[in-house]
Every structure is written in structure tokens, then in C-alpha cells.
């Protein structure tokens, strides 16, 4: 699969990891060209089992992705629409597609991520922010609207109602450490640590079967909106989707026949043993 022809970012393959680097003008504005590129990227990734992890980053030292382009926001309807007639916005559709990718997605944020840029990060599976560089904000309420690229709905699911409302109604900047405290990012890392950390995490995830990565993602996302009994049924469903497509049963048989699961020494080296068992196919 070739990842070329994009105008707002470049995409580079490194083994099972795709590094997507935003590089669009001075501020990586989130306009129609970027949404079109992301849509085309998603179409390619949905059909690619060789890529297992996607890392989104920026070529700009100060900006991850800035807010949505006001050139298309200013043409929004000024009339109220009924619930029956409302349609999803292009931004919502594209970011939901990114969220549902079969690959694990990581946002490496080393600059400003406000408005739609922050909402893009929230649509990724994981987010890591650089101390002293990353800044976040949802400014929409002060403009007279609301976060409408998942910034209201995903934010509440990510951090809970009170914190989500503090962020979106406060409409103020917060840094990497505050983002970690809120729960909008997985971790805040020093600027010299974030690159090696994200690279190592992405490369480790890329060792696992693509089908088990996807099954895990789908089960976790489905569980958010389901009662516990239905969530457990979802887990069971995705379990069998994985075992039907991966070497899982061969690996369980190997562990049993080799007595590996009963060896206390193996309990000390599970992280490394999990890597070595990838040879059993």
C-alpha cells in the first residue's frame, strides 16, 4: 500500500508503523483539504493489515493541528434544525472514521492543539503530550457555538461530565500536566522523552497480530456505551473474531505443551516472552 498524494501531511512507513506528519501552511489549519486527506488516509488504512499502528505528529515545532478553518465554518446555517433533520458534520464523519480504524492510533502532541485540533487528538486511541510545548483549548463556546467535532461527546466520555464542562465552558488554555490530570492525555512527558517513548510503544504494539489489535479496539469502544452484561457479550464476540484469524490457539497449545505457563521464571519475563512468542504462527 502506498501512502502518497496528500497535501496537508506526509506519511512514512516504518515496519508496521505509519508516521503521519502534519505539514500544512504555518499552523496546520484543519480545513477541507485536511479532512479530504484524512478521509483518503482512512480509506487506505481500512484495507491495510500490514500497518498496525499510526502515529500522528507535526513538522511544526509549535503547532500540532490548530482549530477548524473559519472559511467553511462561516458558511454554516444560521437557522435552527430539528433533531429529525440534523445531519452529521463533515468534521464529525471524518474524525469518527479515524476513531474506528482497525489500527491503534497515537497522537504525539508537541505544540498547540486547540479546537478541532484537540478534537482530532481525542479521536485517536492514545494521546501523549510534551511538557513545555503542548497547549490545549476548546474555544467554541466563546465564539457562540460548541465543540462539534467530538469535543463535547468524546470529552465527556474521556474525563467525565464535570471536567468536560470545566474544559469546554472555561474555554481557556491548559498545558500537558493539566491535560494528564484531567485525563485528556495518557501521559505528559518531557520534550526529550516523548519521541523515544511513543516510538517504542508504537513499535511494540506493531508486533501483535493486526486482528487482535482491531478486536481489542472494537471491544473497548463498544463497552463505553453498553451495560456490563452486554459489554461482556461484546468481549466474547470479539474474542472469537480474534481466535478465528490469529495464531492464538497455536500459542496457547505451545505454552501448555512446553509447560511455559507453569514456570515461575517465565512470570518474571512476561514482557519479553510475549515478544518471543510472536514466532509461533
* CATH structural fold name of the largest domain: 2-enoyl-CoA Hydratase, Chain A, domain 1
Q: Give the tally of β-strands.
A: 10
Say which CATH homologous superfamily of the largest domain is assigned.
2-enoyl-CoA Hydratase, Chain A, domain 1
Which shape, going by the Cα principal axes? Answer: globular
How large is the radius of gyration?
A: 20 Å
Q: Which architecture of the largest domain per CATH?
A: Alpha-Beta Complex
How far do the termini sit from each other?
24 Å
Q: How many domains would you count in the coordinates? A: 2
Main sheet characteristics: 6 strands, mixed
| Order of secondary-structure elements | EEHEEHHEEHEEHHHEHEHHHHHH
How many distinct helices?
Answer: 14
Mean pLDDT: 93
Strand adjacency order, main sheet = 1-2-3-5-7-10
Instruction: Assign the structural class, choosing from mainly alpha, mainly beta, alpha/beta, alpha+beta, or little secondary structure.
Output: alpha/beta
Question: Would you give an account of this structure?
Answer:
- By secondary structure, the protein is an alpha/beta fold.
- It has 2 domains: 9-205, 2-enoyl-CoA Hydratase, Chain A, domain 1, CATH 3.90.226; 210-279, no CATH class.
- The protein has 14 helices and 10 strands.
- The strands form 2 sheets. The chain has a 6-stranded mixed beta sheet with strand order 1-2-3-5-7-10.
- α3 (90-99) packs parallel to α4, α6 (153-159) crosses α7 (161-170) and α10 (210-224) runs antiparallel to α11.
- The radius of gyration is 20 Å and the shape is globular.
- The model has no long low-confidence stretch (mean pLDDT 93).
Amino acid at each position: 500500500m502506498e501512502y502518497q498524494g496528500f497535501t496537508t501531511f506526509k506519511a512514512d512507513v516504518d515496519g508496521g508503523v505509519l508516521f503521519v506528519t502534519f505539514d500544512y501552511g504555518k499552523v496546520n489549519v484543519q480545513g477541507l483539504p485536511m479532512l479530504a486527506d484524512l478521509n483518503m488516509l482512512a480509506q487506505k488504512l481500512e484495507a491495510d493489515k500490514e500497518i498496525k499502528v499510526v502515529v500522528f505528529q507535526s513538522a511544526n515545532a509549535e503547532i500540532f493541528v490548530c482549530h477548524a478553518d473559519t472559511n467553511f465554518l462561516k458558511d454554516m446555517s444560521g437557522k435552527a434544525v430539528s433533531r429529525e433533520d440534523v445531519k452529521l458534520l463533515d468534521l464529525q464523519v471524518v474524525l469518527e472514521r479515524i476513531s474506528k480504524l482497525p489500527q491503534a492510533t497515537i497522537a504525539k502532541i508537541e505544540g498547540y492543539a486547540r479546537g478541532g485540533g484537540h478534537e482530532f487528538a481525542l479521536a485517536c486511541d492514545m494521546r501523549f503530550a510534551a511538557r513545555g510545548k503542548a497547549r490545549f483549548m476548546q474555544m467554541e463556546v466563546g465564539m457562540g457555538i460548541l465543540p462539534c467535532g467530538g469535543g463535547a461527546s468524546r470529552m465527556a466520555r474521556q474525563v467525565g461530565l464535570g471536567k468536560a464542562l470545566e474544559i469546554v465552558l472555561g474555554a481557556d488554555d491548559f498545558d500537558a500536566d493539566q491535560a494528564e490530570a484531567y485525563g485528556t492525555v495518557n501521559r505528559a512527558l518531557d520534550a526529550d522523552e516523548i519521541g523515544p517513548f511513543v516510538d517504542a510503544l508504537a513499535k511494540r504494539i506493531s508486533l501483535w497480530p493486526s486482528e487482535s489489535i482491531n478486536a481489542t479496539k472494537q471491544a473497548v469502544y463498544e463497552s463505553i456505551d453498553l451495560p456490563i452484561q452486554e459489554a461482556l457479550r461484546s468481549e466474547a464476540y470479539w474474542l472469537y473474531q480474534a481466535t478465528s484469524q490469529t495464531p492464538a490457539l497455536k500459542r496457547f497449545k505451545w505454552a501448555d505443551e512446553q509447560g511455559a505457563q507453569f514456570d515461575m521464571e517465565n512470570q518474571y519475563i512476561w514482557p519479553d516472552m510475549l515478544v518471543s512468542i510472536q514466532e509461533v504462527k
